[in-house]
Amino acid sequence: MSTAAAADPFQNYGYAVLTANALAAPGRIALTHQGGPGLSYDALNRSVNRRAHALTAAGVRPGERVAALLGGTLAVAEVYLALFKIGAVTVALNPFWDAGVLAHAVGRSRATTLVHDAGTDGLAAAVRPRLPGVGRWVRVGGPAEGSADLDALAAEAPDSEPEVHGSGDDPLALFPTSGSTGPPKAVVHSHASALATARLWADVPRGEDAVFGTGAIIWGIGFPSIAGPALHGGLRLVLEQEWSPRTLLTVVPREKVTHISVIPSFFAALLADGAHADADLSSLRTIILGGEPIAPALLARVRERLPQAAVYGYYGQTEAPYSAFGRIDGPGRDPRSAGRARTGCAIRVTDPAGTPVVDEVGEINLAGPHRMLGYDGAPERTAAVLRGPWFVGGDLGRIDAGGRLRVLGRRSDTILKHGRWTPPSVIEEAAAELDAVAEAGAVGWPAHPDGAAPAEQRVLLAVVPRAGADPAPARIAAALAARLPAHQRPDRVVVTGRLPHGRDASGGPGKLLRSEIRVLHAPGEDP
Among 363, 357, 351, which Cα is nearest to 423's? Predict the structure, then answer.
C-alpha cells in the first residue's frame, strides 16, 4: 500500500468515523465506559490522536502489520482507531484464543509489532517466545519489561491530528472468522469496505438521544460492524467489559440504552431466567437480531417482554458484514426474514450450477462495497469464495420475489434423513414453540456408524427448559411427532441445563456450537 499521506482523510476509516463527528458536533457524547463519565467526540478524538502519536513514537509505521491483543473495551476503541488513522494494518486477535491458536495467527499474519493490554498480560507472555518475527512489543496499562509503555508515550504526545495514512482500497485490518467451519481465517478489509459497513445507521431509525449498548465483542469484526457504525452514526456508545444478559438488566436502565444488537441465543438465555421480570427495559427502542436464525416463538416472547421496541433482523458474515437488514416484527412481516439487501449491497441465492433462483433453497451470494478484499495469504481459498463481485460462503437460504432473504443455516449443518435434507433451524423452531422449551439445538448423527449408508442420519435434539418447567424427553418427542414430518422428527431428545455456545459474545452466549451438541449428547450406537 502507499505510505503517502491520504489526499482526502475522509477516505481513511478512523478519521471518517470519529474525527468527522468531532468536527461536526464536538460536544456530543461519543462514548461512556463502565458507567464512568462520558467522553465527547472531541475528547475521544484527542485521546485517539495522542495514542496515534504515541504509536508512531514507538516506531510503528504506515503499512506495518500490528497485532492487537486487547480485551479492554476502551483500549480496543482507542488503539484500533489510532492504528487506523496512521495507516498501520491492524491484525485483530481474539482474546479468548489459547496460546497455540494465537501464536499461529500472529505468525501467519507477518505482524512485526504486538500491542496488548494489562488484561492479556498472561497470554502475551505465553506467546512471546513463539513469535521471533515480532520485534516490537507495546503495552497499554503501564510499564512492563521489554515493552514500550503506550500510556506514558501518549501522556507526552500532542492531541493534534496525526498525519493520516491509508484510505480507499488500502488494507485496513485482518479480522478473524469465527472458526465455526474450521481454523479461523484472516479476512482482509479495506478502509473503503469498513466505511461502507459503518453506514449501517442509514437503514436504522435513530434519534438525537440514541444510545447503543455493547461489550467486549467490539474487538475484531465487531469493531466495523458495531462500534464503528455507532460512532459514524453519531450515537452514544456505551461500552461495558461484559455484555451478558445479567449485565444488560443493569446497564439498560442505568444508561437508558435505546439500541442493542445481539444474537437470538442472547434473548433465549435472558428470557429463560426469571431475573428479567423486574428490570426496567423501557428505554429499549431498537433490537437488532442476527448471527443465527430466530425462531418465531422466541421472537413472540421478545415482543411480549419488550412491546415498545422495534425488532430488526440482519444477515452477514465476517467477509461481508450486515449485508441484509429489515424489520421482522409486526403485521405482514416475516419473522424468519433477515430483511433485504442493505443500501448499496446486493444479495442473490443460487442453485448448485450457480444459477440465481427465487423461492428455492440455494447458496447465499453477497456483493457490495462492504465485501472483503480476500483471505490473507490464501489466494486459492479466496478464489473459491469470490465469484466475480459475489462472495459465496456456504450458507443456505431462500429469497422471495420481493428480495426478502430467509437464512437457513450452514450447508454443512443440514441433516439428511429418509433421503431428504432439513436445515436444523426448522426443527429448532418447532421445538421453541412448545411452552416448556426456552432454547433448542438440532444436529444429525450417522444412522449407520458402520458405514453401510454413511450419508443417512438421525436427528438429535437438545433442549433447555424454560424457567419453572420440567419437560420429559418423551413428551417433547411426542409433541414434535405431531408437528413435523417423519424426516424431521427427532430420534433422540435430551433435556439439558444449557446448550454449548461460543465465547465471543462479550459475556453473553455466542453462536450455537452444534458440533459440541453432537459430542456431548449423541449416542455411541443406535438407540
Answer: 363
C-alpha 45/C-alpha 78 separation (Å) is: 9
**CB–CB of 344/365 below 8 Å?**
no
| Dist. CA 21–CA 17, nearest whole Å | 7
Terminal Cα distance for the chain, rounded: 59
| Residues 141, 117 contacting (CB under 8 angstroms) | yes
φ, ψ dihedrals at 178, nearest 5° = -70, -20
CA distance 277 to 237: 26
SS3 state of residue 88: coil
413: DSSP letter: G
Q: What is the pLDDT of residue 45?
A: 98
Q: For every residue of 467-515, which 3-state class applies, written as one string?
A: CCCCCCHHHHHHHHHCCCCHHHCCCEEEECCCCCECCCECCECCCECHH
Contact 416, 479 (CB under 8 A): no
By C-alpha distance, which of 171, 162, 22 is closest to 82? 162
d(CA 178, CA 511): 9
> Which residue's entry shows cell 444459477?
355
Global confidence as pTM? 0.84
Report in angstroms the alpha-carbon separations of 325 from 340, 343, 418. Answer: 5, 9, 35
Residue 198: per-residue pLDDT: 94
What residues in the chain have per-residue pLDDT under 50? 1-3, 452-454, 505, 525-527
Which residues, at least 6 apart from 450, have a Cβ–Cβ distance to it below 8 Å? none
Within 210-282, residue ranges assigned H as helices are: 222, 228-232, 245-255, 264-272
C-alpha cell at 336: 424468519
**The pLDDT of residue 485:** 92
pLDDT in tens, 363-374: 999 999 999 999
* Identity of residue 493: V
- Which SS3 state, helix, strand or coil, does residue 256 take? coil
Residue 410, C-alpha cell as written in the block: 450452514
pLDDT tens digit string along 417-434?
Answer: 887 778 888 899 899 899
